Amino acid sequence: MTDPRPTLRRPQGTTGTRILGVGSAQPDKIVTNDDLSQIMDTSDQWIRDRVGIIERRFAEKDELLVDFAVAAGTAALADAGVDPSEVDTVILPNCTMPSLIPNASAQVAARIGIPNPGAFDLNAACAGFCYGLGVASDLIKAGSSKKALVIGAEKLTDSVDPTDRANAIIFADGAGAAVVGAADEPGIGPVVWGSAGELVDLIYMRDHKYIYQEGQSVFRWATTQIAPIALQALAAAGLDPSDVDVLIPHQANLRIVEAIAKKLRAKGAREDMVVADDIKYSGNTSSASIPLALDHMRKAGTVKSGDLVLAVGFGAGLSYAGQAFVCP
Ligand code: UT7
Description:
The chain is α/β, with parallel strands linked by helices. Helices cover 33% and strands 23% of the residues. It has 2 domains: 16-183, Thiolase/Chalcone synthase (Peroxisomal Thiolase, Chain A, domain 1, 3-Layer(aba) Sandwich), CATH 3.40.47.10; 192-326, Peroxisomal Thiolase, Chain A, domain 1. The longest helix has 22 residues, at 215-236.
């Protein structure tokens, strides 16, 4: 006897997804290391040697996280040749939205002209963009979304104690975005993600005050624990280290970026693998750093369409995520 209960239709998803376009936005105001050394006890040499930053961008008081998100999202849609009306999902990774409600995503979508999308913010701190890209890709594969816009955006300068010289010199503002859609061939590998909640006290921002981090402990964790995650993300996509054309780790500290690259090369990544060093001119922009770097590298021609990119984000939580994808 057949079961009389109704059955749900099989998901109308896809086997493949890809990034269709990227975009970014930063404040106009450039702040050099010498500028900072005028207002705190630091030096250009210390910052270059310990962190690798040459200059960064700081927002003005009236420039908000949502403004950068709108600009980056609009640029990514233009790059993809996708009309806002085609987007049904907006995911906005960030950890510095000044209000918990309203969130950033719904108002950003409205300002971009995306009609009534599913919209949510996602807080996985500096791992946020890779989390968001993973969720977007899987929503499309499952048939819950056709086109998604993922925008990592931060105004970290609101959350940094200007007298805390370790943090005040690294964090900066900006946004980076990617449009994700269906594809015949897989263009975004599975996300490999995780967390280490027992290390929660290493980075935090309580009551929307200032960011605190135990820099050296986070540094040690990032330089030992994150390269293996990147390798797992490659394996999950059926790839080898030698396949990677471009490595984009979260731009936390150039020494962390270089340590991750060195570990991947020890496992077979090529010497000519391009390694993102966008932190030199953008600083650490948390959720925005990976798409910002990708957009800048595409514009500079250091990453080309079709290149195999490996991204890995890590930060407060502690949380981490990575995936391989094909550059649009
Ligand atoms: O993005 C989210 C994840 N975050 C990260 O991945 C950040 C990881 N950590 C780091 O990148 C580094 O730990 C920092 C950049 C945050 C700090 O660099 P550090 O080399 O670990 O410095 P430290 O905090 O251990 O301080 C070493 C020394 C101290 O002086 P003493 O006590 O040895 O005399 C600090 O007071 O450097 C001093 N210092 C500075 N000196 C000049 C700290 N900040 C500065 C500064 N200028 N801006």
